[in-house]
Amino acid sequence: MRKTIVPTAELARQLPVWRVFDCRFDLMKPASGAQQYAESHIPGASFADLEKDLSAQKTGRNGRHPLPQLSAFTAWLGQQGLRSSDQVVCYDAGNGMMAARLWWMLRWAGHEAAAVLDGGFAKWQKEGRPVTTEAPDFRRTEYVSRESLQQTLPAARVEAELSRLFLLDARAPARYRGEQEPIDPVAGHIPGARNRFNMDNVLPDGSFKPAEQLRSEFQAILGEQKPGEVVHYCGSGVSACHNLLAMEVAGLHGGRLFAGSWSEWIAESSRPREP
């Protein structure tokens, strides 16, 4: 059973037994992922759209990519024909940030056999592995969630316990410091949060750093803090999942997610901000 990352060679050996999901998405060009999937994808892969499949409707107060109700997500899994016994591998264009969102959500639904393709579609293509334009057709199932393997905190609880929480911000350092903000209307970060840019989890080719290196780098930030007490956030609850995945790879288990993240936090003007 694979629970974190999977090498391309291993996925190639396991096709078509393992279930594969294409999670390619561009925040600046939301329709591009579906277009890329239609043009070329890993054989047997189903498409998971960040905004249509992995997020709920936005209200203006619940963030840019709010989590759907668990029942809605499991209904979607059933529509994809997923079985609780299936090994799932998620991939995106390369570094795993979008794929990590589905990985986290599967674990949120209690699906333990979920992993991310190391190096993603970019590495798969570079190695000359097979691709197709054919979309698979799986028979629907009645997917039933199990006990959650990942925990999420609502904004109200983050606000109420702010002085006691260990928050880790996954955004780029310039966004964390409030020097620039290309997406959200307000710059800055939640008071007291530390910063771990999620792209520091990967090597230049988009594959994850070795587990020992990741463990050392995260422990330098955490200090004596227990991994299970860390609350991860980012701009909208996507790249934070990449840090959660990296910590799992490093053997640092149990971190929680503030799914609404910065985009939900700033929707209430009375919430404190830094700088």
Write the layout of secondary structure elements.
Elements: E1 5-6, H1 8-14, E2 19-22, H2 32-39, E3 45-47, H3 70-79, E4 88-91, H4 97-108, E5 114-117, H5 120-126, E6 151-152, H6 155-160, E7 166-169, H7 173-176, E8 194-195, H8 211-222, E9 230-233, H9 239-249, E10 256-257, H10 261-265
Parallel strand pairs: 1-5, 2-3, 2-4, 4-5, 6-10, 7-8, 7-9, 9-10
Helix pairs in contact: 4-9
Describe the model.
The chain has 275 residues and is of the alpha/beta class. It has two domains: 5-126, 3-Layer(aba) Sandwich (Oxidized Rhodanese, domain 1); 151-265, Rhodanese-like domain (Oxidized Rhodanese, domain 1, 3-Layer(aba) Sandwich). It contains ten helices and ten strands. The chain has a five-stranded parallel β-sheet. A five-stranded parallel β-sheet has the order 6-10-9-7-8, covered by helices on one side. Helix 4 packs across helix 9 (239-249).
Q: Largest sheet at a glance?
A: 5 strands, parallel
Distance between the termini: 44 Å
List the secondary-structure elements in sequence, H or E. EHEHEHEHEHEHEHEHEHEH
Q: Would you tell me the structural class of the helices and strands? A: alpha/beta
Spatial ordering of strands, largest sheet: 1-5-4-2-3
CATH classification class of the largest domain: Alpha Beta
Q: Which superfamily, in CATH terms, is the homologous superfamily of the largest domain?
A: Rhodanese-like domain
What's the CATH architecture of the largest domain? 3-Layer(aba) Sandwich
Average pLDDT, rounded to a whole number, is 97
Helix content: 25-40%
In the predicted model, the low-confidence regions spanning at least 5 consecutive residues are none
Beta-strand segment tally: 10
CATH topology of the largest domain: Oxidized Rhodanese, domain 1
Contiguous helical run count? 10
* Residue fraction in strands: 5-15%
